[in-house]
Amino acid sequence: MKRSILSFSFALTLALSSPAFAQRSHPGGGPPAGRGPGGDSGMNGAHDSGSAARADMHGSPSDVLSHNTAIAGKIKALTGEDAQTACSGFKNMGQCVAAAHVAKNLDIPGGFAALKAKITGTGSLSLGKAIQALAPDADANGETKKANKQAEDDLRETTST
What angle (nearest 5°) sits at the alpha carbon of residue 58, between those of residues 70 and 139? Predict the structure, then answer.
């Protein structure tokens, strides 16, 4: 009995003193949000358009359009529709802008409206699956990556102005 208590105490002491136990974990495995490797924000009081663009990628279209009106012109040029109409039904702005780029890049039959219907309609599909359905000969993975990069660039460009 005494031996098992000592063994348990020793094991507990080892576990609690290990470096892995002492380290705090952060979601995603990196430093806390907004912190650089040295623990500072890396912004030094300057506007960080990269983080603003990332926030816009994941923000709802109506929220993003309320503070980033410059992106509306890009969406209109890509879709032929005003941005509020074009992006209604999308989960976030990045998804809308990426879909607009795919429709333009691939000259999707039925255009942006057909792609939007596949992504936001009943039985909604991912952008990649919607590309496969509407342009079966296209490289859906490659086109999705390309469009997501274009969307991120557009949002970065319009948040820095």
Answer: 90
Cα-based torsion angle of the residue sequence 23, 29, 33, 39 in order, rounded to the nearest 10 degrees: 50
Query: Is this structure's pTM higher than 0.70?
Result: no
Q: Give the model confidence (pLDDT) of 87-103 as tens digits.
A: 999 999 999 999 999 99
Domain annotation covers residue 150: yes
Rounded distance, CA 128 to CA 56, Å?
Answer: 21
Torsion of Cα atoms, 28 then 33 then 35 then 38, to 10°: -30
Helix (H) or strand (E) holding 58: helix 49-58
Supply the range of the domain harboring residue 59.
Answer: 49-159
Q: Does residue 36 lie in a domain region?
A: no
Residue 14 lies in a domain: no
> Residue 21 and residue 12: Cα distance in Å, rounded?
11
- Confirm whether 67 is domain-assigned: yes
Please name which of 47, 65, 77 lies closest in space to residue 155, comparing C-alpha atoms.
65
Please tell me the total count of domains within the chain: 1
